[in-house]
UniProtKB/TrEMBL annotation:
InterPro entries: BPS1_pln. It comes from Vitis rotundifolia. This is DUF241 domain protein. Pfam families: BPS1. The lineage of its organism: Eukaryota, Viridiplantae, Streptophyta, Embryophyta, Tracheophyta. GO terms for biological process: root development; shoot system development.
Amino acid sequence: MGNRCHVRSISLPSRSHPTTLKIQQQLNKLTTLEASSTSALGRTSNGLSGLEELYNCMDELLSLPSTQQALSLHQHEKWVNELLDGPVSLLDICGTARDVISQFKENVGDLQSALRRRKGDVCIEISINNYICSRKKKNKDAKKLLSAMKMDNKAGASPLLDQDHQLSTMIRVLREVNIMSISIFQSLLLLLSTPVLKSRPSRWSLLSKFMHKGAVSCEESAESTELESVDLALGVLSSEEAKLETMQIARKGVEALEVGIEGLEKGLERMFRRLVKTRASLLNIITH
C-alpha cells in the first residue's frame, strides 16, 4: 500500500461544535492507518470501517438544527451543490468496487475449492489459470476506476462563508469527509490494481518461510500483499510438481485472501447504504 493517497489532517478552532471535533478526531485517526502493522487487506477493511464511523459522525452534524438552517438558507449556493454531488459520485465508485470485489470473491472461492482436491488433479491447473485471468481483469477494472476518479481538494470557502465562522467550519469539515472518502476508495483500488506476480525463487523462499509458520514480520509483510503472496504460491504450483507442503502453503494463502476479500465486500456494502442515507439526509434538509 505504498502508493496510498495521503490526506492532510484538519485542525479546527477550539470553539468548534463537539460534533465537528469528533469528525476531526476520526479524520486524523484514518490518516494513521497507513502506519498500521496489519495486512494490506486488513488496513483497507479498517479504512472502510473507519469511514463508516466518520459518516455516523457526519450524520450527527447534519441532524443539528444549526446545520439544517444554514443549508436551507444557502440552498442555491454553489457549495451546496458540491456537497450534494459528493455522495453521488462516491456511490458510483462504491457500487462498482463492490461488484468487482463480489465477483472476485467467487473466483477466490472456486480456487480454494480446487486446491482442496488431490495434487495432480487437472481441475487445480484449470482453476489456477481461471484465477490468474480473473486477477488480470480485476486489475484492469480497478485501473479504469482509478483513472475516472478526480480528487479536487483545493476548493476554498466563498467570501460569504468566510464571514460566518460556524458555517465555514461546517463546510470545511464536510469537504474533508469527502476527500477522505475518495482517499480510502483509491487505496482499495490501488490494492486491486496490484500487478500479477510471477514466482521467483528468492521471494518464494521468504514467502514460504513466513506463511508456513503462520507469522510475518513488518519487513516481510511490506514485500508482499495477500494478492501477491497468492500469486507467488500459484506460480510455484504451476511451474513444478506440486509438493504437499507447497500445496498447503497455497491453501493457507488463498484462505487468508478469501477472508480479507469477504471483509472488503461487507465493508463496501455497509458504506454503500451509508452513502445512500447521507445523500437522502442532505436532500431532505435542502428541499424542506
